[in-house]
Amino acid sequence: MPDFAELVSKSTEVEKAAIVVDVREGPTLDRLPEILKEVRSGCRRRVVFLDSQDAVLVRRYSETRRPHRWDARDGVALDR
Questions:
Q1: Which of 41-45, 50-54, 57-61 has the lowest mean pLDDT?
Q2: Which among 24, 25, 34, 70 could disulfide-bond with 29, CB atoms 3.0 to 4.6 Å apart, if both were Cys?
Q3: Which domain holds residue 14?
Q4: Which range among 25-29, 59-63, 67-71 shows the weakest confidence by mean pLDDT?
Q5: Is residue 71 domain-shared with residue 45, that is, in the same domain?
């Protein structure tokens, strides 16, 4: 992420860019606050956290023709 932010800040062609971080990043996600502090010095940034109701998540999984891996609302909460 810091390397990407540096490239964008030095670019004369790129005006805006976005990086998506998924909860499935695993242990790297634990380092996100540290990484964001590192990026802070080079460019303007905004963190947006997206969330959804459990019923919506279950429906979205079903629309992909596969059940949610926990296959129950309690499982979705556990996954969250």
A1: 41-45
A2: 25
A3: 1-49
A4: 67-71
A5: no
CA 23 to chain centre: 6
Token duo for residue 57: 């998540």
Euclidean distance between CA atoms 70 and 62, whole angstroms: 12
5 and 41 both lie in a single domain: yes
Neighbour tally for 43: CB within 10 Å: 13
Q: Which of 49, 16, 31 is nearest to 4 (CA)?
A: 16
43 and 56, same domain (yes or no): no
Residue that is written with structure tokens 């279950």 in the block: 58
DSSP 69: T
Residue 36 and residue 10 in one domain: yes
Structural domain count of the chain: 2
Given its phi and psi angles, is residue 71 left (phi above 0), alpha (psi -120 to 50 degrees) or beta? left
